[in-house]
Design a protein that fits this description.
By secondary structure, the chain is α+β, with helices and mostly antiparallel strands. It is built from ten helices and seven strands. The protein has two domains: 253 residues, Beta Polymerase, domain 2 (2-Layer Sandwich), CATH 3.30.460; 52 residues. The chain is 64% helix and 14% strand. The two termini are 76 Å apart.
Amino acid sequence: MSESRFYHIPKSGKLEQLDSVEEVMTRAKEEGFFWLHFLEPTAEDLHPLIELLGIHSLSVEDSLDTNQLPKIDDFPDNSFIVFNAFSYIKKALSVQEIDLFLGNHFLISVDRIGPDGKPLLDGIEDMVQREMDTDRLGPAFVMHTILDVIVDRKFIAIEALEDELAEAEDAVLERPAEFDPKSLQHIRRALVTLRKSLFHEREVFVKICRKDCPFIPDKAIFHYRDVYDHLTRFFELTETLRDVATSLMEIDLSLRSNEMSRAANRTNNSVRRLTFITTIFLPLTLLASIGGMSEWSMMTGPSNWRFTYPMFLLGMAVIAAVCYVFLKRIVRRDDKKSDGKDDD
């Protein structure tokens, strides 16, 4: 059986830990209310509560299924709330479920082991005891303390993602060649997951603040509204960070496209120069192959080579100059046309 703690809370507000559910229920009938805190419970731990406290069987099934979205379900004898706790350790986001059953005289909390090996609500008893006084006595106030702690700890995960996003932003702008775009996709996926959870959790608090839950008294609603404000701020922050991540992905793509364009332009310029040189030397190569034949003296006469060879070389130089000037004008004309299109 997983570690579970059962508390009877009298009017004095002092937590009294007892050994069994039946014992705390008996004490609560005399005075106060009770709080059952389960850690990684099994079906054998929760199913007896269906008969003892009138917990609906569907709620018990949902509490054993850790893939539920945040929600609040109201039943005749209790309300069932599903909430999420965030953890961001070693650049890995963990979203885990915490379940709460709220009645007029009891609260049941279902805790989970976090990725660090500790309970998600580690030390919650001390916080409940510190927050409890005669003005904040009751199951709804204990649940408020639990939800307040969960929401406050969400900021640790969101802040870690914000810091990682800031590092990615510096890397994109300062070291684009070394930046790995996979890290941005990882951050954006985590922010989308957080947004989804925060959206549904905000809806839970909207229903609570609207006084849809009959087990939360009016004097406790003001405390829940404060938690709702925190959730709304975190939701908006997540939206902003998601937009920043999307913008950084677009900037990274633009920088990479520009770098590829510059590389293509450098390649085009290199090919252009080689083509320019080849075009000039192609006719010269043809002439040189003809002039270098052993039959040259036969065509010009054996006694005229001293005159014809210099003339032949001079003709090659003139042809090369003419080709250069002609090709240069073509290149300038094409460049002007390209610049005109770019201006348009």
